[in-house]
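Team,

Forwarding the record for the chain on the shared tracking sheet. I've put the sequence and predicted structure together so nobody has to dig through attachments.
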Amino acid sequence: MASATPTPAARRGRPGYDQEQMLEVIVKVFTDHGYDAATLELIAKRLGLSKSAVYHHFDSKSAMLELALEQVLGALEAVFTAPEAVTGLASERIEFVVNGAVRVACERQLALQLLLRLHGNSEVELKAMERRRGFDAKLKQLFELALTEGSLRADFDPGLAERFTFGLINSLVEWYRPGGRFTPEEIADAVLRFLRSGLTTP
């Protein structure tokens, strides 16, 4: 399911800028204007660079999108493929995945927002959306295992459990603020307590 992480372009161009710093600005442009409407001119203007200087770092706008999406997709991939997510009791694996996904949502907030807003108008978008659906399927499978082992309420459908869980996590793109009232650790703990109270058996 996972594609290889794109190889970063050489860090060249205007002194003081590198690809990672530029991506932060580019993701903001994509989320502010939408990927399709975010022209290279808009991106260059926000960066304070010429179009040619931007192309020193990225081959194309689609390459920018692919690298931006990999920030969140790669991080989620690492959560779902970690040993704690693939072995042990389903209930424990779910807690590990939820904890990790909350942290990714907080740390890669803009990249996640970009992922959630994709329309599938390009090959890069379609591949990213397919990878996202893969995470949905993996979490649903974990809830199915939890139902089998008796740690998920028998009257709760695993598919709904997955949708509700990712719905909670994805909502962080709308209200979470780094350095705000709640830390990622506190949010992850609250989400898990919420799930335990509503989805799991006593």
